[in-house]
Structure prediction request, 130 residues.
Amino acid sequence: MIRILSTRCKKAAALALVLGCVAPPLWAGAAGAPATQLQELSKNVASAMESLQAGDVPAARQRFRDFDQGWDRIEDGVRAKSRDAYQKVERALGGVKTKLVKPAKPDDAAALKALQELKATIDAVIPGLR
Prediction:
């Protein structure tokens, strides 16, 4: 009896190990899909644009930081799904950092244009991530 149980446990453990290596993680369902995550994060970009248009540069920077921190958490999933989409978002993100985050006093028009380009890039790549 002990030998049978031991064999069954070994088989179950081996199966669990294989499934754990092959099956996607539980969080990779619809709510965790790169397209859904990126779409949710893009709300921070839209909020940053609204803040900048209202003349609130600190709030725009904070909303962008919120996006950037979220991007850090999902970028590997985006890159795994589409390297091209990942690179496009990274380029647009760099433009916002250059125009909004780095300058002590950003040019509002240039920063807004960079945010709009980031939002447009995100909107363009999302369908390819589904």
